[in-house]
Write a structure and sequence with these properties.
It is built from 14 helices and no strands. With 392 residues, it is mainly alpha-helical. The chain has one domain: MFS general substrate transporter like domains (Growth Hormone, Chain: A), CATH 1.20.1250.20. Helix 1 crosses helix 8, helix 4 runs antiparallel to helix 5 and helix 9 crosses helix 12. The chain is globular and about 50 Å long. The protein starts with a helix and ends in a 9-residue tail after the last helix. Its main location: membrane. It is found in: Cell membrane. It comes from Pseudomonas oryzihabitans.
Length: 392
């Protein structure tokens, strides 16, 4: 594998580590301070909804056209701002907390869409095939994510949110500093354009647009599940069981280990319905088990199932693009679905579990219901297999 490709996946892993560590800290601290699942859901929803709105209303700010080097430098600037907020003591105020959450949401969207587009362009340039590209991307992301989740929960349990911000900001600034002194990115070779026949097999061309839309919806429902996990599991652990932030960080980390195993083990494609069904079972055990070791241990299955689904669906998305422009559009479109549904999940499930609806005790039932919705979305993609790119 070329050095540039290895560096790219290394950057993905470091970015995921910093973002996940900070996200875990913000979620746990927000629920601990407010004590309200609705306020937590609103905060998480707004932090993801703002970048979605920016993408819809200001298409010129499309981050998929940024090079990886520029994304890393941008991340360094944003984390520098978060460091200043923490040093000024503003994380102890509601306004500072909201600003930090919004900055993390914007950064997460821009990073995700830019890295997904860059990953697809590597396939178009002939540097990797679609299967290896999807697996290496998820391997790098999950390696960083489960490390960040575990470290974020541990630091917050032993220290404070400010200390956590200092640590992740230092990592982001160090990465940006290295990127600043390295030579600018080289333009990749001209993409190898696949023929229309390979992009849209016989009998599927007419439903290509619908198939890709359903694929984006299924990927978005994975984001919905992640958003529900980040909102409901802290509620279950903190309010219903009285467990610690380290327990939540460990559960998230174990889920990341499962996702990592899904990325590196050679599982055959096409069994997404099986994994979606097992995911519902795992959601039930996670949400309802009163035993910490069972609840946290089942996260291995949940992480494995989620990432198996995501890799399979992402590989189909990569194969749907035949040009760099289509890769940009598909990466941006799938990111919009993912971010929008990930932002809608905290708002929706937070409302259902608030005192205005069913109360915190409903959190386990709602979480299992979210798994059922994801299963339904995956079933739709199997009924209408996406092969062609979105209609121009």
């Amino acid at each position: 594998m070329k050095a540039a490709v290895i560096r790219f996946y290394g950057v993905v892993a470091l970015s995921a580590l910093a973002d996940m560590a900070l996200l875990i800290g913000l979620i746990w601290a927000a629920l601990r301070v407010t004590g309200s699942p609705l306020l937590l859901g609103t905060l998480l929803g707004v932090s993801a909804l703002i970048p979605f709105s920016i993408r819809r209303n200001f298409p010129a700010l499309d981050s998929t056209r940024l090079s990886v080097r520029r994304v890393v430098l941008l991340r360094g600037g944003v984390y520098g701002g978060l460091l200043l907020i923490a040093l000024a003591g503003l994380l102890q105020t509601l306004a500072g907390f909201v600003v930090a959450a919004v900055l993390v949401g914007v950064l997460n969207y821009m990073t995700t869409s830019a890295y997904e587009a860059a990953n697809t362009k590597q396939v178009l340039a002939g540097l990797l095939d679609s299967q290896r590209s999807a697996r290496w991307m998820q391997t790098a992301f999950q390696l960083g994510a489960f490390s960040g989740a575990f470290l974020g929960g541990l630091v917050l349990d032993r220290a404070s949110l400010d200390v956590l911000v200092y640590a992740v900001a230092g990592l982001a600034l160090l990465t940006a500093g290295v990127a600043a002194v390295l030579p600018a990115d080289r333009q990749p070779p001209a993409p190898v354009v696949r023929s229309d026949a390979s992009a849209a097999p016989d009998g599927l061309g007419d439903m290509g647009g619908r198939g890709v839309t359903l694929l984006c919806l299924a990927l978005g429902m994975i984001g919905f599940h992640i958003g529900a996990f980040n909102t409901l599991i802290p509620l279950v652990y903190q309010r219903l069981h009285g467990w610690s932030s380290a327990d939540f960080g460990l559960a998230s980390g174990i889920a990341g280990v499962g996702a990592f195993l899904a990325a590196i083990l050679p599982w055959p494609r096409g069994r997404v319905l099986l994994w979606a069904g097992l995911l519902v079972v795992g959601d039930y055990l996670l949400a309802f088990s009163p035993l910490p070791w069972v609840s946290m241990g089942i996260c291995l299955l949940i992480g494995f199932g989620i990432n198996t689904l995501r890799i399979d669906l992402r590989q189909q998305m990569i194969e749907a693009a035949t040009t760099t422009e289509q890769a940009n559009r598909l990466a941006a479109t799938s990111s919009v679905y993912f971010i929008f549904l990930q932002s809608a999940a905290p708002l929706g499930v937070g409302l259902l579990c608030s005192e205005y609806a069913f109360g915190p005790g409903a959190a386990p039932h709602v979480f299992v219901g979210v798994g059922g919705l994801l299963l339904g979305a995956v079933l739709l993609t199997r009924m209408h297999r996406p092969r062609a790119v979105l209609a121009q």
